[in-house]
Design goal:
Elements: H1 9-18, E1 23-29, H2 33-50, E2 56-62, H3 69-76, E3 82-86, H4 93-107, E4 111-114, H5 124-135, E5 141-147, H6 154-168, E6 180-183, H7 184-191, H8 205-215, E7 220-227, H9 235-238, H10 240-254, H11 257-265, E8 274-275, H12 290-311, H13 314-326, H14 334-347, H15 354-376, H16 381-397, H17 399-407
Parallel strand pairs: 1-2, 1-4, 2-3, 5-7, 7-8
Antiparallel strand pairs: 4-6, 5-6
């Protein structure tokens, strides 16, 4: 068994003293003292309420906070053993998850749920819906399904969901949602992948986990968790690095031989089972600055004009050029966006630096989000969700564009 590398010595020692846990809740964190106590307290209540008699633990892997984040976890765990401390390795959410996976293995746990440290809407039932399907043998991997405000989750809505759905044929609505459940065996699978010096160690972790589960064809379920209320980020002001890391990871995974074999053969998409009754929820409002998005689109166009001519198909590049000239992001509609994304996926077949490819796509993401905000601004949650679904169908319809582009220059199989 390879020696753990993401666990700090104090955490490793604390885990060895704990000896064993059947079920674990993992919480990655960095400077979350204001919110993580509530998350730990609710997680502990969920473990006690829904899994009485099971040996349980909370593991907080922290990025070196100086605000007492880990102290809050230990103080609020309310009788549930809590192992909290810093992780080792590259700074980022993925490194924290790596430490949690290692903790699951050291504790010999059967199942684990991971939850964000800034949640305000978490309830004890979340823990049951994330871990329960694993314990009952209904699933090996559980993704969240929740209502998010129409301006929230823009990376999910514009690319993570529609591209994952079209490539791998499964309607996993929140592939990078933040809350997941998985078995101990799958945690070991995650650990053994040689990805921990890549963007998977940062914000690429969620899509890495979901895509790995899809490629291994494990049983997947979605847990309905109601509304997600957390500390949101403005897509124009805050999400550039996250986009690059998530999309760069998606591109790296999509070009693996086993992934290519799967998405080449996948047509359409299938439903993924849902745990819990889906009830209408109107999420808390989230703000988004369209002027910032448009300005970043224009600035990015100046930096990427040559790259776009090289990477994008002629008809896509021409439409993008027109949008830049007019300053109108609405030309980047769902159909055009799907083809642009597929152009970048195809480019990853021969270009090694997927982060560079993701950065080339980033200005078009800003334009697509600006257009999408305008499309949904007068709609309720259900109406906005229909727009997202329509865009996902655009990705399915345009998949032939990817197959054609991927084949250009591919060695003959004769």
């Amino acid at each position: 068994m390879p020696e753990a590398t993401a666990l700090s010595a104090p955490m490793r020692d604390a885990l060895r003293k704990q000896e064993h846990a059947d079920l674990v809740v993992g919480i990655p964190s960095f400077r979350n003292a204001a919110t993580i106590g509530h998350v730990a307290r609710v997680a502990a209540e969920g473990l006690r309420t829904y899994f009485p008699g099971r040996r349980v633990a909370i593991v907080n892997a922290d990025g070196g906070s100086q605000d007492g984040t880990s102290d809050r976890v230990r103080a609020e765990a309310d009788g549930v053993p809590a192992i909290a401390g810093p992780y080792q390795g590259p700074s980022g959410k993925g490194s924290a998850f790596r430490a949690i996976f290692e903790a699951v293995r050291l504790l010999g746990a059967d199942a684990c749920a991971v939850v964000d440290s800034d949640l305000r809407s978490i309830t004890p039932e979340w823990i049951e819906r994330l871990i329960g399907p694993i314990v009952r043998g209904q699933a090996e991997y559980v993704t969240p399904l929740y209502a998010r405000h129409k301006f929230d989750g823009t990376i999910t809505n514009t690319i993570a969901y529609p591209l994952t759905r079209a490539l791998y044929g499964a309607r996993v609505r929140q592939p990078i949602g933040g809350e997941f459940g998985f078995g101990g065996a799958l945690a070991t699978v995650f650990l053994e992948q040689p990805v921990w010096e890549t963007d998977v160690a940062r914000f690429g972790i969620d899509i890495f986990m979901t895509t790995t589960a899809l490629l291994r064809q494990v049983r997947i379920a979605q847990a309905f968790l109601g509304a997600k209320i957390h500390d949101p980020k403005d897509p124009g002001a805050d999400l550039g690095p996250m986009f690059t890391q998530v999309v760069g990871t998606m591109l790296s995974l999509a070009r693996r031989p086993e992934a290519v074999a799967m998405w080449r053969g996948a047509t359409g998409s299938r439903d993924v089972p849902v745990i819990g009754d889906v009830v209408p929820v109107e999420p808390e409002a989230v703000g988004a600055s369209v002027p910032i998005l448009v300005e970043k689109f224009r600035a990015g166009a100046d930096a990427n004009r040559d790259s776009w001519r090289e990477l994008l198909s002629p008809e896509v590049a021409d439409t993008v050029s027109g949008a830049v000239a007019s300053g109108d992001p609405h030309a980047i509609n769902g159909e055009l966006w799907a083809r642009a994304v597929y152009d970048i996926v195809a480019a990853a077949r021969t270009l090694a630096d997927t982060a560079e490819l993701a950065r080339a796509l980033l200005p078009l993401y800003f334009a697509r989000v600006a257009a999408l905000i305008d499309e949904v601004k007068d709609l309720d949650h259900a109406g906005a969700e229909r727009v997202v679904e329509s865009q996902a169908l655009s990705f399915e319809r345009a998949k032939g564009h990817l197959l054609e582009r991927w084949s250009v220059g591919e060695p003959s199989r004769r």
